[in-house]
Amino acid sequence: MIEADMRKAVYLLHHQGLACRRIARDLGISRNTVRNIVSQQGRVPAIARKKQHIDEELLRHLYHQCDGYCQRVHEKLTEEHGVEITYSTLTRMLRRLGISKSAVPRCDRVPDEPGQEMQHDTTTYRLTLADRQVRVIASMLYLRYCKRRYLKFYRSFNRFGMKCFLHEALMFWQYSAKQCIIDNTNLARLRGTGSNAVIVPEMEQFAKSYGFRFVCHQIGHANRKAGEERSFRTTETNFLPGRRFDSLEDLNRQTLQWCTVRLENRPQNRAGLIPAKAFEYERCYLIKLPVHLPAPYRTVMRGTDQYGYVAFEGKNYGHGHHRTDRGLADHRGH
After folding, report:
1. pLDDT digit string (tens) for 115-136?
2. The dihedral of CA 288, 292, 293, 295: what is its sign?
3. Is residue 203 one of the residues assigned to a domain?
4. Is 72 among the domain residues?
């Protein structure tokens, strides 16, 4: 579209008696464009917008069902109700009807480097599983450059659970970044904080086998892993609202599908970055993991009773029965 200043110049030159051919040659535009601007008297033509009507009660119901998260409302409108509407139009409509409030402005960002960093953190939620309110712990791994995420929920989470989760996530990606940013959690930190933190030897050796190292950020500097924090916010606003979970297994099945299908193929931020495509570029900078890398395990010492059986987690094991506490198979909470 021709800018307003250019339109004004064309119209003034026309009034001064210059021919359309001369105006077009001097300003570098076509003669048809000059004629159109003259016929419109130099004014910018108004663009007719097609007004879209959506039932207000439906919007209020979905907004309440999705706990006020507009992105989830938009998905349910398009997928479940067949309403074709742009996200910006929906948010403007919600504000005009007084249903929603203006969004909080985003914080500043730090430049990324491919293959350099991933971030890990956990948070606690109270969710409804099979009509029961339960406490679950969400563990997430986030590749900072391509913005790829791996999320899983647990009943409980400890150091062994952290090793099992990282193994599962990294083997799913088959790649690892050079460092993993964490807060000052005692699951991986032995003493000290921030740059002075000393990592637990067990966790340091574990990370070394996957080609990365743990790095603690300074206390109070949660923005150092802002991508991770924003990912939990996306989970709260886009994944949890409006969904039903029958069990922890069902919750993790839907979580995996959401992370690997929906999020990885949806444009992120204003640049429109798509994590699946960005990951293809970042792969050459990441550390390729061997496919035979064994899962974490721990050895549990138990004595036998008078009948020669070993008690472990409420079960008795006799001769010929061997139990290895494999992380991915037997870890409580998986």
Report:
1. 999 999 999 999 999 889 999 9
2. positive
3. yes
4. yes
